[in-house]
Amino acid sequence: xxxxxxxxxxxxxxxLWREFLPLSLSDVTMACGDPMMTTTLAHLPDAQNxxxxxxxxxxxxxxxxxxxIMILHAANALAGSQSSRKALWRFNLFxxxxxxxxxxxxxxxxxxxxxGVSLLGVPPAMLATVSQVLLIACGWPFAIAxxxxxxxxxxxxxxPRAVAKASIFRLLTLIIxxxxxxxxxxxxxxxxGTALMSGVIVEAIAVTIFARKTGATIPPEAVTQPNxxxxxxxxxxxxxxxxxxxxxxxxxxxxxxxILARAEDATIAIAGWSAAWGxxxxxxxxxxxxxxxxxxxxxxxSELTSQRLRYRQLLTFAISVGAACSALLLFMSLTPIGxxxxxxxxxxxxxxxxxxxxxxxxxxxxPLLVALQNAIQGFLVSENRTSHVNLSTWLGTGTLLIIASxxxxxxxxxxxxxxxxxxxxxxxxxxxxxxxxxxx
Length: 440
Fold this sequence. Notes:
Blueprint: H1 13-42, H2 47-65, H3 71-78, H4 82-107, H5 109-118, H6 127-136, H7 140-156, H8 160-184, H9 188-214, H10 232-260, H11 266-284, H12 290-297, H13 304-334, H14 336-346, H15 350-362, H16 366-382, H17 386-409, H18 414-438
Helix pairs in contact: 1-8, 1-11, 2-4, 2-6, 2-7, 2-9, 2-10, 2-11, 3-4, 3-7, 4-6, 4-7, 5-6, 6-9, 7-9, 8-9, 10-17, 11-15, 11-16, 11-18, 12-13, 12-16, 13-14, 13-15, 13-16, 14-15, 15-18, 16-18, 17-18
């Protein structure tokens, strides 16, 4: 399929897929880390406690990471001028460093013991392990901020394979550390924190090297978009809604863990949800990079009619990606092969396996919803309508927490309640984003 534009601006669905696949691979390899870590911890002593503790610690780490998750999108969108890049880079270092400091502060046992019990409802048996993981991984936000800035530059300059290669280096690092830790029977918390930090540091170094070698750090001679923010104040105004969006998303998911901690089956609910959601994200995360394709291509047309055709094509592309991944997850949830994957994933824990299976089945629609969500967000970000992205996230997160609380209060199993609430929240967010896009 080709758009009716000038040859220099034509792009086909095949081209979109070809550029998307290496980017998708980077998200898939990143998501593969969670199942690998779950499998390793499941075969170490005190499996359920370690799985639940690491699930809580990673939720907190990602919450502190959340303000800089959208740095990738910002770097891609603002890479058209040197002044915009410099302003974003300074902003990035300041924000990433500050968040890492706060995460390390939270991990101090005397602080976390108070906050963990009173605010998060963490069971006392998990406090020490969660605190340990947070202290080891306190540099996580800074390393992620660094990595995502250079990833954005690489995507803008058409270097998706470099992004994929760096993510493979991260996965290999994780595999090596998890394997060594398993052989040495290292404590689950120490092993998880070390593996997480080592992998992301290796990836951050790799994308930096690739960006310099490929020339992605060199801005274009002419400004490609005249309305880009050029200083720290303008970057802050552009980025604040995006940062708040991800803080709301991961803040909501952290609160979801605290809601599960109050379920009748608290330990198995947290462990089951963390394990099942990690497995679902291996496939669902493979669709997220549709947003980068949308941001890159949606402004390559000047005429309104051509732009509408481009938007339609990009949305069709996103749906095709999401539908393919949802079909794959459905196949896994309904076939004996899927049962074997789950069984090898969590070991011989029958109770945990029974908790995971219904969650995976419920979540088969997640990849399609993630693809739609990211595509529509990409349209809005490229139009500098970041506040609309933020509003939709607030509505979706509110739906998540309300439905999860109601379901658990009515006696539904914790992991199943979380899955139903997550689906409902994503549907609400996609509807809201679509309405904002159409109503421009």
